[in-house]
Design goal:
Elements: H1 5-28, E1 37-41, H2 47-55, E2 60-63, H3 66-75, E3 83-86, H4 92-101, E4 102-108, H5 111-116, E5 125-132, E6 142-143, H6 147-155, E7 160-166, H7 175-192, E8 198-200, H8 207-212, E9 217-220, H9 222-225
Helix pairs in contact: 3-4, 6-7
Bound molecules: pyridoxal-5'-phosphate.
Length: 232
């Protein structure tokens, strides 16, 4: 894949375009682009794409399936400083294994997962409480009203460092309004945990709206990687 200059060239173009769009979206609302981390979501793509991204300066990548992430992280263990962000549903029984490669888990959505991620070996895993911004429980994330109790749970779990909140925009609502709600949830979380200032929000179609509502961590897939191959 990296041996095909056309593919690499397109990748460089898309990376540069997204970086420029992030920068202008930030400046438009008086924010500094440096305070925003772009995580390139590489799910379903081969490890080789992650290597290409790394060679172009990317240090934060995201995956949403444990099995796939584990295999890729092992294959790319030579890439120093590469951080794996786990952004998908995590089964409690896989949580402990995810700790080994992940720098951050963005999908803390129930106490069983939080408990399974606990560790007293001295390492710290960054965690985001995933908030469900819809009324549909199948969409993932903790209901808005239950955020505080899950936050308390994370704060009392050894080995976890609460970074903030995460959400995916609902399908049936303008994203800006949904991200504004997430921002208010973030304010509540910060009154419990002042250091948990981060907001993981914004994907390919809606990252500008997320930036306008304070997102600090964007999770961008297709706008950078191009179309995803089907799940393998
Ligand atoms: C796939 C995925 C993304 C990236 O989506 P794109 O629309 O390709 O940018 C972001 N967040 C989560 C949780 C995902 O599963």
């Amino acid at each position: 894949m990296s041996s095909d200059p056309a593919v690499g060239g397109d990748l460089a173009d898309r990376l540069a375009r997204v970086a420029a769009d992030v920068e202008s979206a930030a400046r438009a609302v008086g924010r500094r682009p440096e305070e925003i981390t772009t995580i390139v979501v590489t799910k379903f793509h081969p490890a080789e794409l992650v290597r290409d991204l790394y060679e172009r300066g990317v240090r934060d990548v995201g995956e949403n399936r444990h099995q796939e992430a584990q295999v890729k992280a092992a294959e790319l263990s030579d890439l120093e400083g590469l951080r794996w962000h786990f952004v998908g549903q995590l089964q409690s029984k896989k949580a402990r294994q995810a700790r080994r490669y992940a720098a951050a888990v963005h999908s803390l959505d129930r106490s069983s997962v939080v408990d399974a991620l606990s560790s007293d070996d001295g390492t710290l895993l960054d965690g985001f409480v995933q908030v469900n911004l819809t009324d549909d429980p199948s969409r993932g994330g903790v209901p808005v009203d239950d955020v505080e109790s899950l936050v308390e749970r994370v704060l009392s779990t050894p080995g976890l460092r609460l970074r903030g909140v995460m959400a995916v925009a609902p399908l049936d609502e303008p994203p800006r309004a949904a991200f504004a709600r997430l921002r208010r949830v973030s304010d509540r979380v910060r009154s419990l945990a002042p250091e948990a200032q981060d907001i993981s929000a914004g994907m390919s179609p809606d990252f500008a709206e997320a930036i306008a509502e304070g997102a600090t961590h964007l999770r961008i897939g297709t706008a950078i990687t191009g179309m995803r191959p089907g799940p393998r």
